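Expect chain and fold; thus:
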Amino acid sequence: MFWQVTLSLLEGFGTTCLIFIVTLAASLVLGLLIAFGTMSRYKWLRAILKTLIWVIRGTPLMLQVMVIFYVPGLLFHVNLFTRLTAVFVAFIINYSCYFSEIYRGGIQSISRGQYEAGQVLGMTRAQIFFRVVLVQVIKRIIPPMSNEVMTLVKDTSLARVILVEEIIKNAEDFVMRGLVWPLFYSAVFYLVFVGILTLAFRFVEKRLAYFKV
Protein backbone atom coordinates (compact mmCIF):
# COMPACT_ATOMS: atom_id res chain seq x y z
CA MET A 1 0.00 0.00 0.00
CA PHE A 2 2.86 2.40 0.81
CA TRP A 3 4.31 2.07 -2.69
CA GLN A 4 0.88 2.42 -4.25
CA VAL A 5 0.34 5.66 -2.36
CA THR A 6 3.85 6.88 -3.19
CA LEU A 7 3.40 6.24 -6.91
CA SER A 8 0.04 8.02 -6.90
CA LEU A 9 1.47 11.01 -5.06
CA LEU A 10 4.45 11.13 -7.41
CA GLU A 11 2.06 11.23 -10.34
CA GLY A 12 0.19 14.10 -8.72
CA PHE A 13 3.49 15.77 -7.85
CA GLY A 14 4.37 15.72 -11.55
CA THR A 15 1.27 17.81 -12.25
CA THR A 16 2.17 20.08 -9.33
CA CYS A 17 5.64 20.64 -10.81
CA LEU A 18 4.16 21.31 -14.25
CA ILE A 19 1.80 23.95 -12.87
CA PHE A 20 4.68 25.52 -10.95
CA ILE A 21 7.10 25.63 -13.90
CA VAL A 22 4.60 26.94 -16.47
CA THR A 23 3.25 29.56 -14.07
CA LEU A 24 6.66 30.77 -12.98
CA ALA A 25 8.13 30.96 -16.49
CA ALA A 26 5.17 32.85 -17.95
CA SER A 27 4.39 35.13 -15.01
CA LEU A 28 7.99 36.33 -14.60
CA VAL A 29 7.88 37.68 -18.15
CA LEU A 30 4.27 38.92 -18.13
CA GLY A 31 4.77 40.47 -14.70
CA LEU A 32 7.64 42.60 -16.03
CA LEU A 33 5.50 43.77 -18.95
CA ILE A 34 2.66 44.68 -16.60
CA ALA A 35 5.12 46.56 -14.38
CA PHE A 36 6.26 48.62 -17.36
CA GLY A 37 2.60 49.25 -18.21
CA THR A 38 1.81 50.54 -14.72
CA MET A 39 4.70 53.01 -15.08
CA SER A 40 3.67 54.03 -18.59
CA ARG A 41 3.07 57.64 -19.53
CA TYR A 42 -0.34 56.62 -20.88
CA LYS A 43 -2.93 57.19 -18.16
CA TRP A 44 -5.52 54.86 -19.71
CA LEU A 45 -3.03 51.97 -19.73
CA ARG A 46 -2.00 52.62 -16.13
CA ALA A 47 -5.63 52.77 -15.08
CA ILE A 48 -6.54 49.46 -16.76
CA LEU A 49 -3.54 47.58 -15.38
CA LYS A 50 -3.86 48.98 -11.86
CA THR A 51 -7.54 48.01 -11.84
CA LEU A 52 -6.61 44.49 -12.97
CA ILE A 53 -3.98 44.23 -10.22
CA TRP A 54 -6.49 45.48 -7.65
CA VAL A 55 -9.08 42.89 -8.67
CA ILE A 56 -6.59 40.00 -8.82
CA ARG A 57 -4.93 40.84 -5.51
CA GLY A 58 -8.27 41.45 -3.85
CA THR A 59 -9.93 38.13 -4.72
CA PRO A 60 -8.94 34.54 -3.81
CA LEU A 61 -6.94 32.56 -6.35
CA MET A 62 -9.33 29.65 -5.86
CA LEU A 63 -12.23 31.85 -7.00
CA GLN A 64 -10.23 33.03 -10.02
CA VAL A 65 -9.60 29.43 -11.08
CA MET A 66 -13.31 28.65 -10.82
CA VAL A 67 -14.32 31.76 -12.73
CA ILE A 68 -11.96 31.08 -15.62
CA PHE A 69 -13.02 27.44 -15.90
CA TYR A 70 -16.77 27.67 -15.29
CA VAL A 71 -17.92 31.16 -16.38
CA PRO A 72 -17.28 30.76 -20.16
CA GLY A 73 -19.44 27.64 -20.10
CA LEU A 74 -22.20 29.36 -18.14
CA LEU A 75 -22.24 32.43 -20.38
CA PHE A 76 -21.47 31.00 -23.80
CA HIS A 77 -22.28 27.30 -23.30
CA VAL A 78 -18.82 26.29 -24.46
CA ASN A 79 -15.83 24.89 -22.59
CA LEU A 80 -13.22 27.48 -23.45
CA PHE A 81 -10.44 25.82 -21.45
CA THR A 82 -9.52 22.33 -20.32
CA ARG A 83 -9.15 21.97 -16.56
CA LEU A 84 -5.37 22.18 -16.61
CA THR A 85 -5.35 25.08 -19.08
CA ALA A 86 -7.77 27.01 -16.87
CA VAL A 87 -5.37 26.50 -13.97
CA PHE A 88 -2.47 27.78 -16.08
CA VAL A 89 -4.39 30.89 -17.14
CA ALA A 90 -5.61 31.72 -13.63
CA PHE A 91 -2.24 31.14 -11.99
CA ILE A 92 -0.29 33.08 -14.63
CA ILE A 93 -2.58 36.10 -14.41
CA ASN A 94 -2.56 36.01 -10.61
CA TYR A 95 1.19 35.70 -10.16
CA SER A 96 1.95 38.14 -12.97
CA CYS A 97 0.08 40.81 -11.03
CA TYR A 98 1.95 40.06 -7.81
CA PHE A 99 5.30 39.92 -9.58
CA SER A 100 4.56 43.18 -11.39
CA GLU A 101 4.29 45.02 -8.08
CA ILE A 102 7.59 43.53 -6.92
CA TYR A 103 9.23 44.56 -10.20
CA ARG A 104 7.75 48.05 -10.01
CA GLY A 105 8.97 48.55 -6.46
CA GLY A 106 12.45 47.39 -7.40
CA ILE A 107 12.67 49.57 -10.50
CA GLN A 108 11.37 52.68 -8.76
CA SER A 109 13.81 52.18 -5.88
CA ILE A 110 16.74 52.95 -8.19
CA SER A 111 17.75 56.58 -7.90
CA ARG A 112 17.27 58.91 -10.83
CA GLY A 113 20.94 59.84 -10.65
CA GLN A 114 21.99 56.44 -11.99
CA TYR A 115 19.89 56.94 -15.11
CA GLU A 116 21.43 60.36 -15.58
CA ALA A 117 24.95 58.97 -15.08
CA GLY A 118 24.32 56.42 -17.79
CA GLN A 119 23.13 59.13 -20.16
CA VAL A 120 26.26 61.17 -19.47
CA LEU A 121 28.32 58.13 -20.46
CA GLY A 122 26.49 57.97 -23.76
CA MET A 123 24.47 54.83 -23.00
CA THR A 124 21.10 54.25 -24.60
CA ARG A 125 17.99 53.82 -22.45
CA ALA A 126 18.05 50.07 -23.10
CA GLN A 127 21.73 49.81 -22.11
CA ILE A 128 21.10 51.78 -18.92
CA PHE A 129 18.24 49.50 -17.96
CA PHE A 130 19.89 46.16 -18.70
CA ARG A 131 23.47 46.99 -17.67
CA VAL A 132 22.91 49.33 -14.74
CA VAL A 133 19.37 49.15 -13.39
CA LEU A 134 18.36 45.52 -13.91
CA VAL A 135 21.29 44.07 -11.93
CA GLN A 136 20.38 46.21 -8.93
CA VAL A 137 16.68 45.47 -9.29
CA ILE A 138 17.31 41.71 -9.28
CA LYS A 139 19.40 42.05 -6.11
CA ARG A 140 16.63 43.96 -4.35
CA ILE A 141 13.68 41.83 -5.41
CA ILE A 142 15.18 38.40 -4.64
CA PRO A 143 13.78 38.23 -1.04
CA PRO A 144 10.15 39.18 -1.87
CA MET A 145 10.27 37.16 -5.08
CA SER A 146 11.48 34.07 -3.24
CA ASN A 147 8.52 34.36 -0.87
CA GLU A 148 6.07 34.49 -3.78
CA VAL A 149 7.73 31.56 -5.53
CA MET A 150 7.48 29.41 -2.40
CA THR A 151 3.85 30.44 -2.00
CA LEU A 152 3.28 29.31 -5.57
CA VAL A 153 4.48 25.82 -4.66
CA LYS A 154 1.73 25.55 -2.04
CA ASP A 155 -0.90 27.34 -4.12
CA THR A 156 -0.70 24.64 -6.77
CA SER A 157 -2.91 22.57 -4.44
CA LEU A 158 -5.79 24.92 -5.32
CA ALA A 159 -5.96 23.27 -8.74
CA ARG A 160 -7.94 20.49 -7.11
CA VAL A 161 -10.95 22.83 -6.84
CA ILE A 162 -11.71 21.99 -10.49
CA LEU A 163 -10.59 18.36 -10.07
CA VAL A 164 -7.09 18.65 -11.53
CA GLU A 165 -5.22 15.62 -10.22
CA GLU A 166 -2.32 17.25 -8.44
CA ILE A 167 -0.70 15.81 -5.32
CA ILE A 168 -3.31 16.89 -2.75
CA LYS A 169 -6.17 15.70 -4.96
CA ASN A 170 -4.53 12.28 -5.24
CA ALA A 171 -3.98 12.19 -1.48
CA GLU A 172 -7.63 13.08 -0.87
CA ASP A 173 -8.68 10.15 -3.05
CA PHE A 174 -7.06 7.86 -0.50
CA VAL A 175 -8.78 9.72 2.34
CA MET A 176 -12.09 8.89 0.69
CA ARG A 177 -11.09 5.22 0.98
CA GLY A 178 -10.45 5.58 4.71
CA LEU A 179 -6.68 6.22 4.61
CA VAL A 180 -5.76 9.54 6.24
CA TRP A 181 -1.97 9.25 6.38
CA PRO A 182 -1.39 9.86 2.60
CA LEU A 183 -2.65 13.42 3.12
CA PHE A 184 0.08 14.05 5.70
CA TYR A 185 2.60 12.12 3.63
CA SER A 186 2.04 14.59 0.77
CA ALA A 187 3.56 17.29 3.00
CA VAL A 188 6.95 15.60 2.56
CA PHE A 189 6.91 16.40 -1.15
CA TYR A 190 6.15 20.07 -0.50
CA LEU A 191 8.84 20.31 2.18
CA VAL A 192 11.47 18.82 -0.13
CA PHE A 193 10.40 21.10 -3.00
CA VAL A 194 10.48 24.25 -0.83
CA GLY A 195 13.77 23.12 0.71
CA ILE A 196 15.40 22.88 -2.71
CA LEU A 197 14.07 26.32 -3.66
CA THR A 198 15.36 27.78 -0.39
CA LEU A 199 18.87 26.50 -1.11
CA ALA A 200 18.64 27.80 -4.70
CA PHE A 201 17.66 31.30 -3.58
CA ARG A 202 20.39 31.35 -0.94
CA PHE A 203 22.90 30.47 -3.63
CA VAL A 204 21.62 33.29 -5.85
CA GLU A 205 21.75 35.78 -2.97
CA LYS A 206 25.35 34.80 -2.21
CA ARG A 207 26.30 35.21 -5.86
CA LEU A 208 24.83 38.69 -5.82
CA ALA A 209 26.28 39.58 -2.42
CA TYR A 210 29.25 41.31 -4.03
CA PHE A 211 26.86 43.94 -5.36
CA LYS A 212 25.98 46.13 -2.40
CA VAL A 213 22.88 48.28 -2.68
Q: What stands out?
A: The helical segments are 2-38, 43-58, 61-76, 83-108, 112-120, 125-155, 167-175, 181-207. The radius of gyration is 21 Å.
